[in-house]
């Protein structure tokens, strides 16, 4: 029966290691929590932190969070460059129109000038209206894409069993989730520093 006893002892040893790691993670999280706004501190209970520490015993959660954050940064960079591109297209369009108008005015007979200028102003206003519409559509697209990324994050973390994560649009809950993500990320960074 020696093997049985050895296995029990090994299992107990592993349990106590897990427990120690859990306590350590929990105390780390409590330290990190103090850096968050007090409104968040009140809502992140000891139980939530304890559950989070338990989940973080599984290293894959750190990898999941890291992956999600990278996707999120890439999306933001991509959307930002799309914005810049649209902006420079619009600027080019207005400059071109301005030059066309200037040329037309130079070739125009003086008595037709007021008529031409009025027509040109209407054209410029129409273009500016179109530009505003395009920018509004771009803004809406950005909001939708970022919202979708948040939903993806929520559902991935919920499936991974990370407490406090589920699909919600409640701004209060979103703030809590953002802070939990920040805790996990900081914990992941301090872990790298130690390893």
Q: How would you explain this protein's 3D organization?
A:
This is DGCR6 protein. Belongs to the gonadal family. InterPro entries: Gonadal. It holds the Pfam family DGCR6. This protein has 195 residues and is mostly helical. It has one domain. The protein contains six helices and no strands. Helix 1 crosses helix 3, helix 1 packs across helix 6 and helix 4 runs antiparallel to helix 5. The longest helix has 48 residues. The two termini are 38 Å apart. The mean pLDDT is 87.
Q: Which key phrases capture this entry?
A:
195 residues, mainly alpha, 6 helices, rod-shaped
Helices, by number, come to 6
Instruction: Please report the total strand number as a whole number.
Output: 0
Structural class, please? mainly alpha
Q: What is the ordering of alpha helices and beta strands?
A: HHHHHH
What integer value in Å does the Rg equal? 29 Å
- Range of strand content: under 5%
- Counting structural domains, the number is 1
Share in helix: over 70%
Q: What composes the largest sheet?
A: none
Low-confidence stretches: none
Query: Roughly how many Å apart are the termini?
Result: 38 Å
Looking at the structure, what is the overall shape? rod-shaped
Q: Output mean pLDDT.
A: 87
Pfam families: DGCR6 (PF07324)
Protein name: DGCR6 protein
Organism: Corythaixoides concolor (Grey go-away-bird)
InterPro entries: Gonadal (IPR010849)
